[in-house]
Specification:
Number of domains of chain A: 2
Number of helices of chain A: 15
Oligomer: homodimer
Organism (chains A, B): Streptoalloteichus tenebrarius (strain ATCC 17920 / DSM 40477 / JCM 4838 / CBS 697.72 / NBRC 16177 / NCIMB 11028 / NRRL B-12390 / A12253. 1 / ISP 5477)
Number of strands of chain A: 19
Strand content of chain A: 15-25%
Structural class of chain A: alpha/beta
Largest sheet of chain A: 7 strands, antiparallel
CATH architecture of the largest domain in chain A: Alpha-Beta Barrel
Strand order of the largest sheet of chain A: 13-12-1-5-3-17-18
Pathway (chains A, B): Cofactor biosynthesis; NAD(+) biosynthesis; nicotinate D-ribonucleotide from nicotinate: step 1/1
Low-confidence stretches of chain A: 1-5
Keywords (chains A, B): Glycosyltransferase, Ligase, Phosphoprotein, Pyridine nucleotide biosynthesis, Transferase
CATH topology of the largest domain in chain A: nicotinate phosphoribosyltransferase
EC number (chains A, B): 6.3.4.21
GO molecular function (chains A, B): glycosyltransferase activity
Amino acid sequence: MTAAQPESTALFTDHYELTMLASALRDGTAQRRCVFELFARRLPDGRRYGVVAGTGRLLEALEHFRFTDAELTALAESRVVDDATLRWLADYRFTGDVDGYPEGELYFPGSPILTVTGTFAEAVVLETLALSILNHDSAVASAAARMVSAANGRRMIEMGSRRAHEEAAVAAARAAYLAGFTATSNLEAGRRYGIPTAGTTAHAFVLLHDDEEAAFRSQLAALGPQTTLLVDTFDITAGIDAAIRAAGPELGAIRIDSGDLGVLARQAREQLDRLGARNTKIVVSGDLDEFAIAALRAEPVDAYGVGTSVVTGSGAPTSGMVYKLVEVEGRPVAKRSSHKESRGGRKAALRRHKPTGTAIEEVVYPHRGPEPERGEHDRALQVPLVRAGQPVADLPTLEESRERLRRALVSVPWEGLKLSHGEPAVPTVFLG
Amino acid sequence: MTAAQPESTALFTDHYELTMLASALRDGTAQRRCVFELFARRLPDGRRYGVVAGTGRLLEALEHFRFTDAELTALAESRVVDDATLRWLADYRFTGDVDGYPEGELYFPGSPILTVTGTFAEAVVLETLALSILNHDSAVASAAARMVSAANGRRMIEMGSRRAHEEAAVAAARAAYLAGFTATSNLEAGRRYGIPTAGTTAHAFVLLHDDEEAAFRSQLAALGPQTTLLVDTFDITAGIDAAIRAAGPELGAIRIDSGDLGVLARQAREQLDRLGARNTKIVVSGDLDEFAIAALRAEPVDAYGVGTSVVTGSGAPTSGMVYKLVEVEGRPVAKRSSHKESRGGRKAALRRHKPTGTAIEEVVYPHRGPEPERGEHDRALQVPLVRAGQPVADLPTLEESRERLRRALVSVPWEGLKLSHGEPAVPTVFLG
């Protein structure tokens, strides 16, 4: 962890959580045993699956969820809550349990992605923190996973930091890496999470110099012949000629950042081959999303640089997950005034698979049972994350979560990997 | 400022900025005097105007843009740059100038929103930081301003934190407030920026209790009769009856969070009036965007709670601004390979107005002159923000920027305030 992490995460909280707490402390209901569930009522428009991301960040933020003097003073000055509530907050430590889908797991409508068990008081104040992190990170990972599928094994570099809030950019780099991106441009993500970073030069570097070839020679002298030269500042054909003149045929890669990338990649490949630079790779970037990536599948592209679309969730910048009270003192509860109905009671989930490993359905059932019959290819989806306030041992690393997702995507029925809009890849079946 | 601000902002930077720096330090071009401009090539699809937001946050982040031992060690370990570059970074202080549109100003395609003047080395490394902050904050403020126009003077509460990255949520609350929102749910935004915070209870609070009226009585005891009771957990009509039974006709407000809000608001108003609660206000929330807000204009709604749509820029989560090198040692430079052409040379801008105060056009012209003729109703748009590395005195407060936007919106031609898609409210005219 780094200095760039907040010392306390306790005010990443909505005002109403503390006023509910104040009222509940006053009337005695604050100590009732509650279960809150975090889930998505639906996937973003036409998506086939969602990817759980952010769990690791949430567990870390939970450890820093402390009302220190700084937070208490701020709350006192703004009169958000009364003195009794401030005293309670001063001692706040989450002492409950958290279960959930591990990072890198797929989710579908109604999947119980996170289950928080504890007193009303200790669990209600975590709503915003949990949702902010999971809604953001899962949105990015869900979009990124589609792009990785579309790229079909080619290298993917996340370079969208400039199009996202500066801290969201770091989390987005993490989520994209989780989803299978190869590297990020974001240096803070490199420091904080150990994600490989990548980058060479922008058009500004070429324009800074007296001519393109001078810029290329300078870059080669500093970064070596395996670097990537950006060839589209003036004229791409002339740029490629200059690149090979400066670097020789052992040049690592060229990057094209504008224009009709398919046509340009083909022309560039022919030109490079003609110049003997058969191993020089072609990196393309510039307004790529999963559809544009897929459209380039037949072209001689070796790597994609993806910016805006991945960090903004490619049309779905949030996952729409909610955090709902489902059980009070063992009694199922649910809102029931409208179309936004929820299912009361704590739930568990398993995913059924064919013997081939292909997923068939998401089964969501009452946690108290009865447990549905479970075939040898089915698996339970929730795992313990926090016990009595402490993160469990052996939480997965980012690399392990990345591998989990890779394996999970192999289980998606082939229709579910299509980029086109449609139904979730597997249906959610609610029992009980 | 608070503990939740990073100590150093220096790694909110893309890898390629430091590799460009390394190459330029090596070949001597790093010290060339440069001008970078930050601008948007276009507004998000069909938008009529953009709102500049984030400048204040950027100036603060710039003061914390320092490569301390922690950053240098991370860069050394990951071998991003060579030792000479690390030594240069250790002494990094921005010593140049920044001019720009003040926060709360409108912008249009090509408006020179920010101009950074300095050596290549000191200016190139600010690209990602500047773009992350302005792209995010302006996206939220631009969407929020449309919602505020649509609400036509009614109270607006930003409550979207849960649908955004936890730090982005704080910045979004600030941007929404800048754009005219009345309050935010986000407690960190309250602490960090002094924005009024608001909130009372969620459905969970009602479900926690043995019945709805018990929950209402508890809330009233803790928060007083001016509170807002959430009446749609079970049945809205019964909920309103229970609310007035518990609070009496002096109840502050009710909130409806689901269903057909127009119909429900009308029914609720009639019911409240019938119960003698003529001053009890009606707050509505639930998937509101600028169009839904406008559609409720004729209904008896007193305040709107807006979540997802405002924090995600209502379909445009980033502003698409870019940071381009436009001048090197006084010589205009520009990329020219494709449709993404840029105009070289440092630019200035003024906005022409009719004698009535209505804006007519955005005039962007070469900074070196000639200055276009300027009528008494026209005004220059850039102001000094940083001089020789130091923020200028008397930077506007958030309240002043909020007032600036309020006045600027009055100058927009009436067609430009329409929510429907169309051309920018005023054309940008490029001279020279």
